[in-house]
Amino acid sequence: MMKILIDGRSITPQISGISRYTYELIKGYIHAYGKENVSVILNTQIENFQYNYILCKYQRHEIIDNIKFSKWLSHQEYDVYHSADLTGPFWHKKGVKHIITCHDLMFIILKDFFRKHNFKQRVKNYKIKLFFKYIVQDADEIISVSKTTCKDLKRVYGCNSIVVPEGVNKIEHKATISSFKGLTKDSFFLYVGLGAPHKNIDFLVKTFLDSKSDKKLVLCGKGHKVIDSDRIIYPGWINEDTLDFLYSNCAAFIFPSKYEGFGLPILEALSYHCKVFSSNAGSLGEFSDKYVHFFNPYKEDELKKLIENCDNFSIDNAGIEMYLQKFCWDNIWSDYHHKHLINQ
């Protein structure tokens, strides 16, 4: 039986999108090869971590550390190495297979990804691009989570990849709280995520405030520029119980991003049978227009029309459930392992 080594150095105590993906990657390999044959590389011990792990002190995105990590990895015993994000060694030993998952290249593609645009930042951007060039060149196989990311990898680095979408992590509908800040069913629009420039929140706020809607706008997450308006609520980071309430009761989930490598929040919203208004930029346009209402992230009138006519849209609950089967983690990893690893 093959020995699997998963690079889990991107796992954080406060679960992020990459952390969730890593945990699903671990479970997928364990299902295919057994828990005793799967080990995870960690930088530090994680409380209540249920899987076999190996501690490694070398950090993910430092050049010197990555050289040391490449040497360290060459002394480990494994048949397959899989990194859960675009990180990994600059070289690896013969006779083993190295797989890298690429979620996006927005740090290269988006001009406003980094807030500074001076000479020093341009030099840093060049180094970052070069750093990842050596990583993707070393990989035996690259997984892209969308067709958009696949095309970006080909255009930027000239490398091929296979498209394996992310799955949806359905949040348990616990219904432990019945109210939040006085909000009632269908009385508010919802956004969940960071306030980074590429998320296009200024566009969302301006469009919403210019609309004739009598609903509120709830912007969850960190980094949002607070506007003095009684129509907008900024709860910051929220726990899963509150998130459950907001998804279950919002009039619609709005995702205005200028670029995404995949767009997992859309699937999470659909898993609650939310109405979803999404930008059509990047990979977001790859979702089905049967269940997602799209708008151009630079045209306010398109989003304003959706906001003002929200109550007129219906939801196909049965169709959404069938559509989400395409993004079932068990199906995704079972199909991948049988096509690319188990039968090799």
**What spatial form do the alpha-carbon principal axes imply?**
globular
By secondary-structure content and strand pairing, the structural class works out as: alpha/beta
Task: Write down the secondary-structure element order.
Answer: EHEEHEEHHEHEEHEEHEHEEHHH
Give the strand order, joined by hyphens, for the main sheet. Answer: 3-2-1-4-5-6-7
Number of E strands = 13
Give the overall average pLDDT: 92
Radius of gyration: 21 Å
Note the beta-strand portion: 15-25%
Into which percent range does the helicity of residues fall? 25-40%
What does the main sheet amount to? 7 strands, parallel
How many DSSP H or I helices? 11
Distance between the termini: 12 Å
Give start-end ranges of low-pLDDT stretches: none
Overall description:
The chain is α/β, with parallel strands linked by helices and 344 residues long. It has helices spanning 17-33, 63-74, 106-109, 119-138, 147-157, 201-210, 240-249, 264-271, 300-308, 317-324, 329-340; strands at residues 4-7, 38-42, 53-55, 80-83, 97-102, 141-144, 162-163, 188-192, 216-220, 232-236, 252-255, 276-279, 293-295. A seven-stranded parallel β-sheet has the order 3-2-1-4-5-6-7. Strands 10-9-8-11-12-13 form a six-stranded parallel β-sheet, sandwiched between helices. Helix 1 crosses helix 11 (329-340) and helix 6 packs across helix 9. The two termini are 12 Å apart. 35% of the residues are buried.
